[in-house]
Amino acid sequence: xxxxxxxxxxxxxxxxxxxxxxxxxxxxxxxxxxxxxxxxxxxxxxxxxxxxxxxxxxxxxxxxxxxxxxxxxxxxxxxxxxxxxxxxxxxxxxxxxxxxxxxxxxxxxxxxxxxxxxxxxxxxxxxxxxxxxxxxxxxxxxxxxxxxxxxxxxxxxxxxxxxxxxxxxxxxxxxxxxxxxxxxxxxxxxxxxxxxxxxxxxxxxxxxxxxxxxxxxxxxxxxxxxxxxxxxxxxxxxxxxxxxxxxxxxxxxxxxxxxxxxxxxxxxxxxxxxxxxxxxxxxxxxxxxxxxxxxxxxxxxxxxxxxxxxxxxxxxxxxxxxxxxxxxxxxxxxxxxxxxxxxxxxxxxxxxxxxxxxxxxxxxxxxxxxxxxxxxxxxxxxxxxxxxxxxxxxxxxxxxxxxxxxxxxxxxxxxxxxxxxxxxxxxxxxxxxxxxxxxxxxxxxxxxxxxxxxxxxxxxxxxxxxxxxxxxxxxxxxxxxxxxxxxxxxxxxxxxxxxxxxxxxxxxxxxxxxxxxxxxxxxxxxxxxxxxxxxxxxxxxxxxxxxxxxxxxxxxxxxxxxxxxxxxxxxxxxxxxxxxxxxxxxxxxxxxxxxxxxxxxxxxxxxxxxxxxxxxxxxxxxxxxxxxxxxxxxxxxxxxxxxxxxxxxxxxxxxxxx
Length: 658
Known about the structure:
- The protein is 55% helix and 11% strand.
- It has 27 helices and 15 strands.
- α3 (53-66) runs antiparallel to α4 and α23 packs parallel to α24.
């Protein structure tokens, strides 16, 4: 080969690799006057570009056999490795790349071959192999493109293995080696993806370790978001303020400013002011007034106990109207209240607005899933779930019962309690041995009671067996000629034996109001369902039970959220003060409103509370608030966890079960 031919070949080869390892990997352009080796290589290239891999493989292989020592020979071997990789034969691809490295160690495409070996491991999901081999490869390469590709691939491998902090570090190195819009955009997208997966300690660590602006802007913005998730609003304000100041051109600038505005709203409130939202007019006026008396008494007691702290309450009427409740919450926001007590019957709409405004709200409602609205919403009320938990725990742990029956009305209240009770029995290792429903309008409950005890459906004749049939022998039958015996046996056969109820349960749960439960309980005894424990809801805790069910309800057990005759000193003191102030005895509504108000007063009055988020954390961290409705704390869903009062009917009185 002449010197000009060699120069031409080298020039062609350089042009080939510049184009091959660019973004588009275009085919090599060759001069008009091609040598036989160039023609063969050019033909192989065209086959490769059209994905005719089988023919291209043969052409590259022919080239290597005929021209193993040309300057383009390493490129032919590289393409053979690429064909293996493109067709999924990664083991053979590695062999081809390794052969290139060993046979042509001085070729500048050796560095690319090293990187391609890493890719074959990645394509096989062998991410640990990529990470293991990359450290050695990175020490042997110094060209920009191979370094960029190796660092980007290493970041991908770390991302797949959950090593997000290492992924960010690798992507950062790739970013520094990127050149051109496409490379920069691609690696930036990967970098953002990895940063979003970092936890708070990792972000703080990287901000201390990494220099320069990249990826500090992404890290700083993500730090602000993570601080919000942790309810560290003060830290979030600091991080986002620094982000806005240092990176005024960042794409997340607008969103960061919106977040800062919301965070500032969270910090502006009056610690000593609590909003009170109750139905003080309309259909539920009586209930609203009962709750208000509880709140007002709590304020009076709190002020007398804390001479150096003053609490102010702003009272608004929800009118039992959702729109009015929302408007009231907005007014509370303008009045900078620290938190809200209530409402009772418009809880969902008020809770949604309070969540939007960032105001903690303690609702007094049984509304399903109310705390799912958001982290600002708490509930302190007597719920069906609390009741069934108390009942089943007592029956299983104190009475040693395992088998239960449920007799429930076919309406929302009954079906809700039935499902909760069944789940609780199973959770505590028990068994539901019987389940029957009834129409809430009926007054005769014979059919559902018989179904529970196996008396409703007659036994088919072909399944009936004579009593003690297994003991009958030929001798027992006797002489058929004995007419007297025949007549006697015939008379015995004509006697109908009254079937007995099958009671395979130890307790029966009837989740219904007294109007119906008071009719059912005597009928249970009439149908011989005796010796079982009666279990009811808080609706049974009334003297009406004694009047309606009389002696049949003796021993019945039910929960409630308040007991005015409790032996607790706190309850006795509360009842005494309430009766002296308002001239009547308090009930559950007055008591739960009193406890809720006292809980918020004590939490909001703490001097170190600077943010509403800190007030939320303070409420959540309550371990054992001692109130007149019992010990109270909140679970992770901000639902009150209470040990309810349990009662047993004895004579004409309800006895508190310790």
